UniProtKB/TrEMBL annotation:
It comes from Cyclostephanos tholiformis. This is UDP-glucose 6-dehydrogenase. The keyword DNA repair does not apply. Keywords: NAD, Oxidoreductase. Transmembrane segments: none annotated. SUPFAM superfamilies: 6-phosphogluconate dehydrogenase C-terminal domain-like, NAD(P)-binding Rossmann-fold domains, UDP-glucose/GDP-mannose dehydrogenase C-terminal domain. The active site is at residue 310.
Length: 501
């Protein structure tokens, strides 16, 4: 024995697998390295608790837990094992460094780690299908099935398999059937445990979740498996926040939560267009409406549209599910959230062009922020990309500054989502420059557009920026984070979402 009482393996070391497993490791009792005179170091099971971390929540079992995150990508795992983690997330480095090498490990030895594990999480990507039945809407669960096949193939003992990825309802059934095909008579319990963290706030979201949802089969074995997983979370999450449901409710609740959140953004964005047309101010509307406790204040910031790898994917997944069950009106209802989001992105770039005398050809435009939200370097489905695409089509010269986004990632996303690359769009590399800071991006520009709500954009020296820009100097605030009155005093012509011009 290695001194650990429970072994967890997580397949998929991405935005969810990495932070989630790091937080589990940080909050669970750890084995303590024992001293031996020869041979490799061994762990003896003396549970210790890190006081600075366990102050986050209540107590649970005292079983020492070892967590290993595995991935097919060697590059990804090497980065998790280095000081330069593959994703940027405030507070993540500190949590990883506290546990890595003690009870948190990252490896590409997938077979060995599955074999060792009592509990295997599947936390792989489930993107929208690009071809075949349901293309453009249905989620591709190929990676989940491959994980199930791998687990069935290499396991030598019974295991609990936890679906962490966001999946269409009844995927757990497919996972169970694949697992049951093992030829060793092994018995697997499948649980659904969707993740609700948001990027940029992943660590606090995981440390203090609103709820942890665990769906399982309502049989004695299923309930026992759910309790095993619940007892892991109970190390730091209060019991009343750990919900257990049947499998299908758990799978569907994840899609519904994202659909409701995205719907709020589309709702307020639709109102922002009406505000601009009527002279109402969307911030005043939000305050007035959000003070109603039944509606609530959060998630009502109008913007250039929502982005990120999940909202659109998960709503399309929901739409497709509704269609599959013949619920056409339900499908159309949710699809409207996407239609409104596309409209908002397009509306913003069109307004930039029409405001700048109907032409941006050859004009330098500074884009401040490319990530899909602040405090992340993630650019998947970022709304900034659609604005940049439209402006490139108008032959503007784009200068992008984002504190976390790598140029390489920007191009990969541009190619993946907009199908725009150097081969099919000659001159693209020259049309889009990445700047080292906001000041150089704005120097000589006709306009600056704030597309991500990074805090540092609020505190720039706008007098200096104004002096360096062509006149009239336009500001397009796509996140409503700047002090518009102050900017107007400096001399800028300011246009903001849902505000009178
Ligand atoms: P990701 O793309 O960042 O990471 C997925 C990882 O899985 C990749 O590193 C990939 O190499 C690996 N992988 C794929 N197939 C594999 C296999 N067969 N074996 C081992 N590794 C494999 O994805 P993500 O953002 O972490 O999302 C994962 C899931 O969680 C998705 O279903 C997503 O909808 C859901 N989710 C994401 C977020 C988020 O904020 N990103 C939040 C909640 C839920
Ligand atoms: C979202 C959900 O918030 C998480 O609960 C969920 O786990 C996750 O999706 C997922 O399943 O992937 P995330 O996409 O990381 O998290 O970030 P959000 O904070 O939800 O923002 C999504 C997008 O909506 C961003 O582009 C953001 O700028 C935009 N947004 C958000 C607005 O435009 N206005 C708002 O008021 C809030």
């Amino acid at each position: 024995s290695d001194g650990f009482d429970l072994h967890i393996c997580c397949m998929g070391a991405g935005y969810v697998g990495g932070p989630t497993m790091a937080v589990i490791a940080a909050n669970c009792p750890k084995g303590v390295m024992g001293s031996v005179t020869c041979g490799p170091p061994v762990f003896v099971s003396i549970p210790i608790r890190d006081e600075s971390i366990t102050t986050w929540g209540g107590g649970g079992g005292e079983r020492a837990i070892r967590v290993c995150v595995v991935d097919l990508s060697q590059k990804q795992i090497d980065a998790w094992n280095s000081p330069d983690l593959p994703i940027y997330e405030p507070g993540l480095v500190e949590v990883v460094e506290k546990c890595r090498g003690t009870n948190l490990f990252f490896s590409t030895d997938i077979d060995a780690e599955i074999e060792l594990a009592d509990v295997v999480f599947i936390s792989v990507n489930t993107p929208t299908k690009t071809a075949g039945i349901g293309a453009g809407r249905a989620a591709n669960v190929k990676n989940c099935e491959l994980c199930a096949r791998k687990i069935a193939e290499v396991s030598m003992g019974d295991k609990i398999v936890v679906e962490k990825s966001t999946v269409p309802v009844r995927t757990a059934e497919a996972v169970r059937r694949v697992l049951d095909c093992n030829e060793k008579g092994l018995r697997f319990q499948v649980l659904s445990n969707p993740e609700f963290l948001a990027e940029g706030t992943a660590i606090p979201d995981l440390m203090e979740p609103d709820r942890v949802l665990i769906g399982g089969v309502q049989s004695p074995e299923g309930l026992r498996a759910a309790e095993t997983l619940a007892s892991v979370y109970a190390n730091w999450v209060p019991r009343e926040r750990i919900l257990t449901t049947n499998l299908w409710s758990s799978e569907l609740a994840k899609l519904v939560a994202n659909a409701f959140l995205a719907q709020r953004v589309s709702s307020i964005n639709s109102i922002s267009a009406l505000c601009e047309a009527t002279g109402a101010n969307v911030s005043e509307i939000t305050r007035a409406v959000g003070m109603d406790d039944r509606i609530g204040k959060r998630f009502l910031n109008s913007s250039i549209g929502f982005g990120g790898s999940c909202f659109q994917k998960d709503i399309l997944n929901l739409v497709y599910l509704c269609e599959t069950y013949g619920l056409r009106e339900c499908a159309e209802y949710w699809n409207q959230v996407i239609i409104m989001n596309d409209y908002q992105k397009k509306r913003f770039s069109e307004k930039m062009v029409s405001t700048m005398f109907n032409t941006v050809t050859g004009k330098k435009i500074a884009i401040l922020g490319f990530a899909f939200k602040k405090d992340t370097g993630d650019v998947r489905e970022t709304p900034s990309m659609f604005v940049v695409r439209d402006l490139v089509h108008e032959q503007a010269k784009i200068h992008v500054y984002d504190p976390q986004v790598k140029r390489e990632d920007m191009w990969i996303e541009m190619d993946y989502t907009c199908k725009m690359n150097a081969a099919n769009h000659p001159g693209l590399e020259e049309a889009v420059t990445t700047s080292p800071d906001a000041y150089s991006a704005c120097d000589g520009a006709h306009a600056l557009a704030v597309l991500t709500e990074w805090d540092e954009f609020k505190d720039l020296d706008y007098e200096r920026i104004y002096k360096s820009m062509a006149k009239p100097a336009f500001v397009f605030d796509g996140r409503n984070i700047l002090d518009h009155d102050a900017l107007r005093k400096v001399g800028f012509e300011v246009h903001a979402i849902g505000k009178p011009d």
